[in-house]
Amino acid sequence: MFADLLADAVRRHDVSGRALGVRALLHLPRLARWDGTVGRSQVIAELNRNAGRLQRDQRDISTLIPKDKYLLSDLRFVRLRNAEADQVFSRLHYLRSARPGSLNFALIDPVSSLPVTLCSLSPLEWTRVGRQLETQFEVPQGATWDVSRVYSFDVAPANAISYLLARVRQVIRTEIPGAQLLTTAVDPNLGFTGASYRAANWQQWMSIEARPYLYIDGVYVSPRQLRARFGGANLAELSRAYPDGKFERSRARLLDSMIFCCRLRGETIAVEPAERRRLRR
């Protein structure tokens, strides 16, 4: 049912189906009952609401959206300027934010030089993941870089993300000698499976307990964004301090995030499901 309702919303609003689907899945848990179900009318309303916001976001950076399709072999790999990457991530990525101080890379249109598929990397800040990597896989803390953002436009050819990740691995291995590992978190609640990472020879090494999604006035916000905006992420305290704002969290149980890893040198071993640790928040 969701796929049909999504397709209808895309036709009516003329927005990216991939981007709208992820945004809707991020916001529907706000409305879900304890058993995870959502009414059909609620799904339609949430799709329309997110489609309207996505229209505005696409319009705001229309000059950065590529229109033409090219073969993967025609795209050029570049280090992307923060100004361009930040605009795309803050408007079109489902988190609607860029990670400050990141390194950004992209495959660009050979004619317009517009980014077609892009990603950002920054030193791993997730202490719990870093400790597990050191304990179980002997990767020193401080030697891991995190792929914190990935976005691919609808015109991107097949395998663009996995190809971009392979090129990024080469660059990081050469330019940051102390780096040993790349990581990323994949959220299956948003329809992500990790297929692009597997295609680039990444492996799932662990999982981490899901935390509720957080919202302000019906719009998703990350704990990092809450801390940057309000100085804290405790919803009870924020509700008391800002009574005019509506702070909510999702109630339905969410699936754990998968942590995928790729060694910068040598083979990335496969970890059998029984050996994958489940980290708690």
| Unreliably modeled segments | none
Q: Quick one: overall form? A: globular
- Number of H/I helices: 9
Radius of gyration, rounded? 19 Å
Mean pLDDT comes to 95
Strand order of the largest sheet: 1-2-3-4-5-10-6-11
- Tell me the span between the first and last alpha carbons: 33 Å
Q: How many β-strands, per DSSP? A: 11
Strand content: 15-25%
Instruction: Please provide the ordered H/E string of secondary-structure elements.
Output: HHHEHEEHEHEHEEEHHEEE
Helix content: 25-40%
The assigned structural class equals alpha+beta
Biggest β-sheet description:
8 strands, mixed
Describe the secondary structure blueprint for this structure.
Blueprint: H1 2-13, H2 17-27, H3 40-60, E1 76-79, H4 82-91, E2 103-108, E3 115-123, H5 127-137, E4 144-152, H6 160-175, E5 181-186, H7 195-199, E6 203-208, E7 214-216, E8 219-221, H8 223-230, H9 235-241, E9 247-249, E10 257-263, E11 277-279
Parallel strand pairs: 4-5, 6-11
Antiparallel strand pairs: 1-2, 2-3, 3-4, 5-10, 6-10, 7-8, 7-9
